[in-house]
Predict the structure.
Amino acid sequence: TACDLCGNIRTVPDHIPVADEAKAPTCTEDGLTAGAHCGVCGEVLTAQEVIPALGHTPVADEAKAPTCTEDGLTAGEHCGVCGKVLTAQEMVPALGHVYSNDYDADCNVCGAVREVDLLGDVDGSGRVDSTDARLTLQYAVRKIDSTMLNIALADVDGNDHVDSTDARLILQYAVRKIANFPAI
């Protein structure tokens, strides 16, 4: 064969094959079969063929319902092969506790108990009972002093002083004869 530049005739050796490695396809990129080309002249000896991308393999990410204290998640999806998020899960805020009123100590949803200043609960037991009525009456007739009970919670009629009427109302509430105190 003659040289294109100088015109001298030279002999061309046989092709020297160089392997073109196969490339596996991924979820998003095409792959190639194995092939070969000449290491001297670059001529393709065995053409590589395109192997189409595989596409993602969806795996469901389950939704998680929010609770009173913990955030939840919406449903989502990710690829089981490459891990790419296909549908992002979104945070659903915690619901917070639900109480019937400002004096209710138990959450209506999960039952969690909160500390509240329960009107009428002069001994701080977390409930209004006959002991609270007895302590209030003893205070009203000056048998005990204010260190024995929470005065702010004893004035259930809201008239700014504690008397036998407050003790009577606390007892009526404790035995469920009344549902609320006049001060509420």
Q: What stands out?
A: The longest strand covers residues 17-20. The radius of gyration is 42 Å. DSSP finds three helices and ten strands in the chain. The mean pLDDT is 89.
